[in-house]
Structure formats: structure tokens, C-alpha cells
């Protein structure tokens, strides 16, 4: 029984820490994206990425940008209270489609492979779906 006591105490301590983190971060959301913030996030995360054209999703929870220097696309998305980003190059996208007013992107990213972006209308969103589809075929 004495050998188990440290494990039980460690489990309670871990559960207490996770509970405190949950309570402290409850309700925290990422700031709404605009073109300037999307450019800034991509520039901070990827120094070799220079955003050219930027598209912000209708709900302002994600944005896509073309790279002035190549065929890559930058993706910034809300995740909790953070705005992480990904670079999508040839072969990184496995599928892309427009479904019910949403741009659905599947990637090879291990950490997060499924993204759903709110469309800003077919005319604005379709060129981005086509760019992503070209990356999937490359």
C-alpha cells in the first residue's frame, strides 16, 4: 500500500492542476482575425513567408494567405485563446471542398488535420478552394 500512495498523490496533484488551468482559461477566446492580424501572425511564426493576398473567413476565426515567394499558403486559425498558424505547401493538403457555405480542408498535419472555414460567399471563397486543391494534387 505504501508504494501506491505516491502515485495516488501525484494523480490528485495532476488533476488539481488541470482543474485550475481549466477554470482559469474558461471563456477565453482568440481575438477576431482581420487582414492585418493574419499577416502579423504569419510573419511572426514563419519569417520566410511573405503574405500577399489574404482572405479572412466570414466568422473571423481563420484566414488564408498566399506566399509572395512561392506556391505555399499560410493558414491562421483560432484555437482556444490562441491564433496558431500552419504553412501549406504542395502535398500538405489531402482534400479541399466547399460544403454548405464552408471551406473544408484536410491536411497531413499531425496535430490538426481538419479545418472548417466559414465562407464569405462562393465568388470570394472558390479561388481559395481551387488554390488548396492544386496543393492537394501537387
Describe this structure in words.
- The chain is of the alpha+beta class and 138 residues long.
- The chain has three helices and seven strands; from the N terminus they run ααβββββββα.
- Strands 1-2-3-4 form a four-stranded antiparallel beta sheet, with helices on both faces.
- The protein starts with a helix and ends with a helix.
- The mean pLDDT is 90.
Report the radius of gyration as a whole number of Å.
19 Å
Shape summary: elongated
- Helicity, as a percent range: 25-40%
Share in β-strands: 25-35%
- Biggest beta sheet summary: 4 strands, antiparallel
How would you describe the oligomerization state of the chains in this entry? single chain
E-strand count: 7
The termini sit apart by 59 Å
Order of secondary-structure elements: HHEEEEEEEH
Amino acid at each position: 500500500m505504501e508504494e501506491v500512495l505516491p502515485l495516488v498523490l501525484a494523480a490528485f496533484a495532476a488533476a488539481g492542476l488541470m482543474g485550475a488551468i481549466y477554470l482559469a482559461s474558461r471563456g477565453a477566446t482568440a481575438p477576431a482575425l482581420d487582414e492585418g492580424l493574419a499577416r502579423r501572425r504569419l510573419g511572426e511564426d514563419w519569417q520566410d513567408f511573405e503574405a500577399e493576398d489574404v482572405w479572412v473567413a466570414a466568422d473571423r476565426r481563420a484566414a488564408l494567405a498566399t506566399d509572395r515567394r512561392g506556391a505555399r499558403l499560410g493558414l491562421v486559425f483560432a484555437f482556444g485563446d490562441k491564433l496558431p498558424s500552419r504553412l501549406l505547401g504542395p502535398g500538405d493538403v489531402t482534400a479541399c471542398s466547399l460544403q454548405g457555405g464552408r471551406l473544408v480542408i484536410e491536411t497531413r498535419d499531425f496535430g490538426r488535420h481538419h479545418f472548417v472555414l466559414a465562407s464569405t460567399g462562393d465568388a470570394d471563397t472558390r479561388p481559395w478552394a481551387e488554390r488548396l486543391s492544386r496543393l492537394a494534387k501537387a
